[in-house]
Amino acid sequence: MKSYAALDVRTDAPDLLLAIVDDFGPTAVEERGETVRIFFLTPDDRDAAHRALAAQFPVAAVDVPDEDWARRSQENLKAITVGRITVAPPWAEDPSPEPPAPGSKTVSPQPSGLRVVILPSMGFGTGHHATTRLCLAALQAVDLTNATLLDVGTGSGVLAIAADLLGAACAIGIDFDPDAIQSARESFELNPGARHVTFEVIDLAARALPVVDVVTANLTGALLVRSAETLLAAVRPGGTLILSGLQSNERDEVCRAFAPSAVVWERDEDGWVGLAVKKQ
User: Fold this and answer.
1) Given pLDDT bands bounded at 50, 70 and 90, which one contains residue 230?
2) What is the pLDDT of residue 127?
3) Mean predicted confidence (pLDDT) in 25-52
4) Residue 50 belongs to what domain range?
5) What is the mean pLDDT of residues 44-49?
6) pTM of this prediction?
7) CATH number of the domain enclosing 63
8) What is the pLDDT of residues 234-258, one digit of tens each?
9) Structural contact between residues 175 and 202, judged by C-beta atoms closer than 8 angstroms
10) Concatenated DSSP letters for 50-65?
Protein backbone atom coordinates (compact mmCIF):
# COMPACT_ATOMS: atom_id res chain seq x y z
CA MET A 1 0.00 0.00 0.00
CA LYS A 2 1.31 3.43 -0.88
CA SER A 3 2.06 5.87 1.91
CA TYR A 4 2.74 9.60 1.95
CA ALA A 5 5.63 11.35 3.69
CA ALA A 6 4.38 13.91 6.19
CA LEU A 7 5.23 15.91 9.29
CA ASP A 8 2.98 16.50 12.30
CA VAL A 9 3.80 19.91 13.76
CA ARG A 10 2.33 21.43 16.92
CA THR A 11 2.07 25.20 16.53
CA ASP A 12 0.06 28.29 17.38
CA ALA A 13 1.79 30.16 14.54
CA PRO A 14 0.68 28.37 11.34
CA ASP A 15 1.62 31.29 9.08
CA LEU A 16 5.24 31.14 10.25
CA LEU A 17 5.24 27.37 9.90
CA LEU A 18 3.97 27.47 6.31
CA ALA A 19 6.47 30.19 5.38
CA ILE A 20 9.35 27.99 6.57
CA VAL A 21 8.22 24.78 4.85
CA ASP A 22 7.46 26.55 1.57
CA ASP A 23 11.05 25.98 0.43
CA PHE A 24 10.65 22.21 0.77
CA GLY A 25 7.80 21.66 -1.69
CA PRO A 26 4.81 20.78 0.52
CA THR A 27 2.01 19.15 -1.46
CA ALA A 28 -0.86 19.37 1.03
CA VAL A 29 -1.66 20.77 4.46
CA GLU A 30 -4.20 19.29 6.87
CA GLU A 31 -5.22 21.10 10.06
CA ARG A 32 -5.74 18.70 12.96
CA GLY A 33 -6.63 20.85 15.98
CA GLU A 34 -3.41 22.19 17.48
CA THR A 35 -1.37 20.09 15.05
CA VAL A 36 -0.74 20.77 11.37
CA ARG A 37 0.02 17.77 9.16
CA ILE A 38 2.14 18.72 6.15
CA PHE A 39 2.63 16.30 3.26
CA PHE A 40 5.63 16.18 0.94
CA LEU A 41 6.34 14.59 -2.43
CA THR A 42 9.32 12.57 -1.18
CA PRO A 43 10.73 11.43 2.18
CA ASP A 44 13.89 13.44 1.42
CA ASP A 45 11.82 16.65 1.15
CA ARG A 46 10.05 15.73 4.38
CA ASP A 47 13.30 15.05 6.22
CA ALA A 48 14.87 18.33 5.05
CA ALA A 49 11.82 20.23 6.30
CA HIS A 50 12.01 18.31 9.58
CA ARG A 51 15.56 19.54 10.14
CA ALA A 52 14.54 23.13 9.40
CA LEU A 53 11.57 23.04 11.77
CA ALA A 54 12.96 21.06 14.68
CA ALA A 55 14.62 24.05 16.37
CA GLN A 56 11.35 26.02 16.55
CA PHE A 57 8.47 23.50 16.71
CA PRO A 58 7.61 20.12 18.22
CA VAL A 59 7.65 18.02 15.04
CA ALA A 60 7.37 14.33 14.19
CA ALA A 61 7.82 12.50 10.89
CA VAL A 62 4.96 10.21 9.86
CA ASP A 63 4.09 8.00 6.91
CA VAL A 64 0.38 8.20 6.14
CA PRO A 65 -1.17 5.17 4.39
CA ASP A 66 -3.25 6.07 1.34
CA GLU A 67 -6.12 3.98 2.75
CA ASP A 68 -6.12 6.04 5.95
CA TRP A 69 -6.33 9.29 3.99
CA ALA A 70 -9.25 8.00 1.92
CA ARG A 71 -11.10 6.67 4.98
CA ARG A 72 -10.85 9.95 6.89
CA SER A 73 -11.78 11.92 3.79
CA GLN A 74 -14.93 9.87 3.32
CA GLU A 75 -15.86 10.33 6.97
CA ASN A 76 -15.41 14.10 7.11
CA LEU A 77 -15.60 15.62 3.63
CA LYS A 78 -18.85 17.35 2.72
CA ALA A 79 -19.99 19.40 -0.26
CA ILE A 80 -19.17 23.11 -0.26
CA THR A 81 -20.58 25.87 -2.45
CA VAL A 82 -18.73 28.90 -3.81
CA GLY A 83 -21.02 31.18 -5.80
CA ARG A 84 -22.73 28.95 -8.36
CA ILE A 85 -20.23 26.10 -8.06
CA THR A 86 -20.71 23.22 -5.64
CA VAL A 87 -17.70 20.95 -5.10
CA ALA A 88 -18.59 17.57 -3.64
CA PRO A 89 -17.21 14.08 -3.11
CA PRO A 90 -19.29 11.41 -4.88
CA TRP A 91 -21.23 10.51 -1.71
CA ALA A 92 -22.12 14.03 -0.52
CA GLU A 93 -25.40 15.85 -0.81
CA ASP A 94 -25.48 19.47 -1.95
CA PRO A 95 -25.38 21.98 0.92
CA SER A 96 -28.03 24.65 1.23
CA PRO A 97 -27.02 27.57 -0.99
CA GLU A 98 -25.59 30.60 0.79
CA PRO A 99 -26.69 34.12 -0.16
CA PRO A 100 -24.18 36.01 -2.34
CA ALA A 101 -21.74 38.34 -0.64
CA PRO A 102 -22.73 42.03 -0.70
CA GLY A 103 -21.52 43.66 -3.89
CA SER A 104 -20.44 40.36 -5.47
CA LYS A 105 -20.81 39.96 -9.20
CA THR A 106 -20.22 36.96 -11.43
CA VAL A 107 -20.04 36.69 -15.19
CA SER A 108 -20.95 33.36 -16.75
CA PRO A 109 -22.81 32.02 -19.77
CA GLN A 110 -24.93 29.68 -17.62
CA PRO A 111 -27.37 30.91 -14.96
CA SER A 112 -27.86 27.63 -13.11
CA GLY A 113 -25.76 26.08 -10.36
CA LEU A 114 -22.91 23.77 -11.33
CA ARG A 115 -21.66 20.66 -9.52
CA VAL A 116 -18.06 19.44 -9.63
CA VAL A 117 -17.51 15.95 -8.24
CA ILE A 118 -14.03 15.42 -6.80
CA LEU A 119 -12.63 12.13 -5.55
CA PRO A 120 -10.63 12.84 -2.36
CA SER A 121 -6.92 12.23 -2.74
CA MET A 122 -3.63 13.70 -1.67
CA GLY A 123 -3.97 16.39 -4.33
CA PHE A 124 -5.02 19.87 -3.30
CA GLY A 125 -8.43 21.07 -4.37
CA THR A 126 -11.39 19.54 -2.55
CA GLY A 127 -12.66 23.12 -2.17
CA HIS A 128 -12.35 23.15 1.61
CA HIS A 129 -9.18 25.23 1.71
CA ALA A 130 -9.53 29.00 1.36
CA THR A 131 -7.07 29.14 -1.53
CA THR A 132 -9.21 26.82 -3.67
CA ARG A 133 -12.38 28.70 -2.76
CA LEU A 134 -10.74 31.97 -3.79
CA CYS A 135 -9.82 30.50 -7.17
CA LEU A 136 -13.37 29.23 -7.70
CA ALA A 137 -14.71 32.70 -6.89
CA ALA A 138 -12.23 34.34 -9.27
CA LEU A 139 -13.20 31.97 -12.09
CA GLN A 140 -16.76 33.24 -11.76
CA ALA A 141 -15.59 36.86 -11.92
CA VAL A 142 -14.01 36.27 -15.35
CA ASP A 143 -15.91 35.66 -18.57
CA LEU A 144 -14.65 32.23 -19.63
CA THR A 145 -16.88 31.91 -22.69
CA ASN A 146 -14.84 30.06 -25.35
CA ALA A 147 -11.60 30.83 -23.49
CA THR A 148 -8.60 28.53 -23.28
CA LEU A 149 -7.35 27.91 -19.73
CA LEU A 150 -4.24 26.44 -18.13
CA ASP A 151 -4.44 25.27 -14.50
CA VAL A 152 -0.91 25.19 -13.06
CA GLY A 153 -0.53 22.86 -10.08
CA THR A 154 -3.88 21.30 -10.84
CA GLY A 155 -3.94 18.88 -7.86
CA SER A 156 -7.38 17.28 -7.91
CA GLY A 157 -8.30 19.03 -11.18
CA VAL A 158 -11.20 20.94 -9.62
CA LEU A 159 -10.35 24.30 -11.22
CA ALA A 160 -9.87 22.89 -14.72
CA ILE A 161 -13.15 20.97 -14.49
CA ALA A 162 -14.98 24.01 -13.09
CA ALA A 163 -13.62 26.20 -15.91
CA ASP A 164 -15.00 23.78 -18.51
CA LEU A 165 -18.43 23.86 -16.86
CA LEU A 166 -18.28 27.67 -16.78
CA GLY A 167 -17.92 27.81 -20.56
CA ALA A 168 -14.21 27.54 -21.37
CA ALA A 169 -13.45 26.10 -24.81
CA CYS A 170 -10.77 23.87 -23.30
CA ALA A 171 -8.88 23.52 -20.04
CA ILE A 172 -5.48 21.92 -19.45
CA GLY A 173 -4.42 20.93 -15.94
CA ILE A 174 -0.73 20.39 -15.27
CA ASP A 175 1.17 19.17 -12.21
CA PHE A 176 4.66 17.84 -11.54
CA ASP A 177 3.20 15.03 -9.39
CA PRO A 178 2.04 11.98 -11.40
CA ASP A 179 -0.22 10.91 -8.52
CA ALA A 180 -2.02 14.26 -8.66
CA ILE A 181 -2.57 13.89 -12.41
CA GLN A 182 -3.94 10.38 -11.94
CA SER A 183 -6.29 11.71 -9.27
CA ALA A 184 -7.41 14.56 -11.53
CA ARG A 185 -8.15 12.15 -14.36
CA GLU A 186 -10.21 9.96 -12.03
CA SER A 187 -12.21 12.99 -10.90
CA PHE A 188 -12.73 14.06 -14.51
CA GLU A 189 -14.40 10.71 -15.20
CA LEU A 190 -16.94 11.55 -12.47
CA ASN A 191 -17.98 14.75 -14.29
CA PRO A 192 -19.63 13.77 -17.59
CA GLY A 193 -20.76 17.37 -18.11
CA ALA A 194 -17.13 18.44 -18.52
CA ARG A 195 -15.86 17.53 -21.98
CA HIS A 196 -12.81 19.52 -23.03
CA VAL A 197 -10.38 18.92 -20.15
CA THR A 198 -6.98 17.25 -20.32
CA PHE A 199 -4.31 16.65 -17.65
CA GLU A 200 -0.56 16.35 -18.17
CA VAL A 201 2.51 15.81 -16.00
CA ILE A 202 4.56 18.99 -16.55
CA ASP A 203 7.10 20.58 -14.24
CA LEU A 204 6.56 24.33 -14.15
CA ALA A 205 10.32 24.91 -13.98
CA ALA A 206 11.29 22.47 -16.72
CA ARG A 207 9.68 23.72 -19.93
CA ALA A 208 7.70 26.48 -21.58
CA LEU A 209 3.96 26.35 -20.97
CA PRO A 210 1.15 26.45 -23.54
CA VAL A 211 -0.11 29.97 -24.31
CA VAL A 212 -3.74 30.49 -23.30
CA ASP A 213 -6.34 33.14 -22.45
CA VAL A 214 -6.51 32.40 -18.71
CA VAL A 215 -4.00 30.87 -16.29
CA THR A 216 -4.91 29.69 -12.79
CA ALA A 217 -2.03 29.19 -10.36
CA ASN A 218 -2.89 28.10 -6.83
CA LEU A 219 0.68 27.69 -5.60
CA THR A 220 2.48 29.52 -2.79
CA GLY A 221 3.50 33.14 -2.53
CA ALA A 222 7.20 32.34 -2.92
CA LEU A 223 6.61 30.06 -5.92
CA LEU A 224 4.37 32.63 -7.59
CA VAL A 225 7.15 35.23 -7.29
CA ARG A 226 9.80 32.84 -8.63
CA SER A 227 7.56 31.70 -11.51
CA ALA A 228 6.05 35.06 -12.47
CA GLU A 229 7.97 35.35 -15.74
CA THR A 230 7.00 31.83 -16.82
CA LEU A 231 3.34 32.29 -15.87
CA LEU A 232 3.10 35.67 -17.62
CA ALA A 233 4.59 34.16 -20.77
CA ALA A 234 1.77 31.59 -20.79
CA VAL A 235 -0.95 34.27 -21.07
CA ARG A 236 -1.86 36.11 -24.24
CA PRO A 237 -1.83 39.93 -24.11
CA GLY A 238 -5.11 41.01 -22.54
CA GLY A 239 -5.48 37.63 -20.85
CA THR A 240 -5.97 36.97 -17.15
CA LEU A 241 -3.95 35.24 -14.45
CA ILE A 242 -5.80 33.97 -11.36
CA LEU A 243 -3.33 33.71 -8.49
CA SER A 244 -3.84 32.13 -5.08
CA GLY A 245 -1.92 30.34 -2.36
CA LEU A 246 -0.39 33.59 -1.12
CA GLN A 247 -0.87 34.95 2.37
CA SER A 248 -1.92 38.53 3.08
CA ASN A 249 1.62 39.60 3.97
CA GLU A 250 2.86 38.30 0.58
CA ARG A 251 0.29 40.19 -1.48
CA ASP A 252 2.40 43.25 -2.37
CA GLU A 253 5.47 41.21 -3.31
CA VAL A 254 3.39 39.00 -5.62
CA CYS A 255 1.78 42.05 -7.25
CA ARG A 256 5.22 43.56 -7.88
CA ALA A 257 6.39 40.30 -9.49
CA PHE A 258 3.48 40.40 -11.97
CA ALA A 259 3.70 44.16 -12.72
CA PRO A 260 2.72 45.92 -14.89
CA SER A 261 -0.28 43.56 -15.02
CA ALA A 262 -3.21 45.26 -13.31
CA VAL A 263 -5.21 43.72 -10.47
CA VAL A 264 -8.82 43.45 -11.69
CA TRP A 265 -10.23 41.28 -8.86
CA GLU A 266 -9.11 40.63 -5.31
CA ARG A 267 -10.46 38.86 -2.25
CA ASP A 268 -9.06 37.97 1.18
CA GLU A 269 -10.28 34.97 3.18
CA ASP A 270 -8.84 33.71 6.46
CA GLY A 271 -5.56 35.48 5.80
CA TRP A 272 -5.22 34.08 2.27
CA VAL A 273 -5.47 36.28 -0.83
CA GLY A 274 -6.84 35.57 -4.29
CA LEU A 275 -5.98 37.86 -7.20
CA ALA A 276 -6.94 38.17 -10.84
CA VAL A 277 -4.52 40.26 -12.88
CA LYS A 278 -4.84 41.28 -16.53
CA LYS A 279 -1.73 41.05 -18.68
CA GLN A 280 -0.84 44.24 -20.51
Assistant:
1) very high
2) 66
3) 86
4) 3-69
5) 94
6) 0.76
7) 3.30.70.260
8) 999 999 999 999 989 999 999 999 9
9) yes
10) HHHHTTTS-EEEEEEE
Give me the sheet containing 272-278, strands edge to edge: 197-201, 170-175, 148-152, 212-218, 235-247, 272-278, 262-269
How many independent structural domains does the chain possess?
2
Strand order in the sheet with 26-32: 26-32, 35-40, 3-10, 59-65
Phi-psi category of residue 33: left, alpha or beta, with phi > 0 → left and psi -120 to 50 → alpha:
left
C-alpha span between 68 and 32 (Å, rounded) = 14
**CA 108 – CA 102 distance, rounded (Å):** 18
Tell which of 46, 69, 92 closes a domain.
69
The backbone torsions φ and ψ at residue 116, rounded to the nearest 5 degrees and listed phi first, read: -115, 120
> CB–CB of 224/252 below 8 Å?
no
- Find the DSSP H helices in the chain: 14-21, 43-53, 66-76, 130-140, 158-165, 178-189, 221-226, 228-233, 251-258
d(CA 39, CA 25): 9
Buried-exposed string 159-175: b where 16+ CB fall within 10 A, e elsewhere: bbbbbbbbebebbbbbb
Looking at the chain, the number of H-run helices and the number of E-run strands are: 9, 14
Instruction: Using CB atoms within 10 Å of the CB of residue 206, give its burial: 0 to 12 exposed, 13 to 18 middle, 19+ buried.
Output: exposed
- Nearest CA to 45 out of 231, 152, 177 is that of 177
